[in-house]
Amino acid sequence: MKRRLALLGATGSIGRSCLEVLRHHPDRFELVALGALGSRPDELLAVVREFRPRFVAVADPAAGERLRADLPAGTELATGGGALVLAAVHPDVDLVVAAVVGAAGLAPVHAALAAGRRVALANKEALVVAGGLLTTLAAASGATLLPIDSEHVALHQALRAGRPEEVARLVLTASGGPFLHRDPATFGDIRREEALRHPTWTMGAKITIDSATLVNKGLELIEAHWLFGFAADSIGVLVHPQSIVHSFVEWRDGSWVAQLSANDMVFPIQYALAWPERWANEFPRLDPAALARLEFLPLDDAKFPAVSLARQALAAGDSAPAAFNAANEVAVAAFLDGRIRFPDILDTIRAVLDAHAPVPLGSLEAALDQDAEARRAAAARIASLPRPR
Q1: Is there a domain that residue 268 lies in?
Q2: DSSP label of 263
Q3: Are both 143 and 172 inside the same structural domain?
């Protein structure tokens, strides 16, 4: 029987890779519902015409209305703030791919888990903002939560080699981004175009900046805590510039289990969509014999303090990780707009975290309130900074 899919974030980098997996396995999937924020309406329309979903959700009402007249006959359209939630809980869907970037993806993930759906999660921010809330909800509803991020898919696979109590620690790998070997004294001179040139991955602008600051690794550390149930001090980060080893598990007997593949998101996406099975495919294979070397370096916390700040947020608990994420989203947007310098991103996160008083997150509304409060704090700080010359 085909797996009936809702794809949220269809026109982003993860969404496009997911569509490649669907094209590769047309006999295994039916794309029932499609969702997007609406920033690429022409691209979204092309996907609708190719896959003919029954339901299309567009968060931007104006973008959605521009599509209405061109949709195939019989395709239902929903627009506005709640549209993605409707796609996530569509009655004919049993598998939701959550690939909307940022905290905007939280409500659809919450709704899908409440409905008992199987959720393949690329939106790491959802677990960062409300990890305790979402994992408790999934346990209560019987929903299954699977990662799509390459690092967490690697850990998911490696953890199948033994029992949780046999694990010494998890180790996330980080490429180090484009500034791994750059003098931090020059970080204030970094321009948008430089930060968007990732050395090994092709991704959207926001996550590419997160990779340059290594905030993405801090977000992934928090996500790994909620996905796998390990404390922060049992989750390490190691710099691996080649991005071939996607993460490790170290076992208590001194053994290590790693997962390797070509650095293409089709591999972790297919793993998540096929789990617990493994399906054959014809994607380009990794040839270990062709690798010149695999390099591993310790993380320089002084140069890249983002992971330390994430640990600080996780240790503070409650709403602190939500504040970490919100401050980063606001600061990254400001950097991309040319309103702040590159080092101001981390400085803004640090300032917001230091001023934040964590509160428990017992509901989706509470999580969204704390997200909004931290965004206001980050925006106020950014407004006080001098604009770059």
Answers
A1: no
A2: S
A3: no
Q: Which residues of 182-216 are buried (b: 16+ CB within 10 A; e: fewer)?
A: eeeeebeebeeeebbebeebebbbbbbbbbbbbbb
- Distances in Å between the alpha carbon of 29 and those of 35, 76, 117? 16, 19, 16
CA gap 48, 52 in Å, rounded: 5
Query: Distance between CA atoms of 77 and 84, rounded to whole angstroms?
Result: 11
Q: What are phi and psi of 173, to 5 degrees?
A: -100, 150
**103 and 216 within one domain:** no
| Structure tokens that stand for 240 in this block | 């691996």
102 pLDDT exceeds 90? no
Determine the straight-line distance between the first and last CA of the chain, rounded to whole angstroms.
59
Contact 124, 321 (CB under 8 A): no
What pLDDT, in 10s, does the model give residues 236-248? 999 999 999 999 9
Give the model confidence (pLDDT) of 195-235 as tens digits: 998 877 777 888 899 999 999 999 999 999 999 999 999 99
The SS3 assignment for 226 reads: helix
Give the CATH number for residue 44: 3.40.50.720
On whether the pTM is more than 0.90, the answer is: yes
HSE-up of 13 (CA within 13 Å, CB side)?
15
Distances 16 to 22, 23, 267 between C-alpha atoms, Å: 10, 11, 13
Q: Could you tell me if 139 and 160 lie in one domain?
A: no
**Which amino acid is present at 69?**
A
Residues in the chain: 389
| Residues 157, 23 within the same domain | no
The SS3 of residue 77 is strand
Instruction: Return all residues near 284 (Cβ < 8 A) that are at least 6 apart.
Output: 262, 264
**CA nearest to 179, candidates 221, 208, 218:** 208
Indicate the burial class of 230 (C-beta count within 10 angstroms; 0-12, 13-18, 19 or more): middle
Say which residue the tokens 């690794």 belong to: 217
What is the identity of the amino acid at 354? D
**Structural domain range at position 312:** 152-262+291-383
End position of a domain, from candidates 98, 121, 147? 147
* Domain boundary pick from 147, 167, 192: 147
Residue indicated by tokens 């299954």? 144
The string over 252-263, giving b where at least 16 C-beta atoms fall within 10 Å of a residue's C-beta and e elsewhere, is eeeeebbbebeb
Statement to judge: residues 238 and 321 lie in one domain: yes
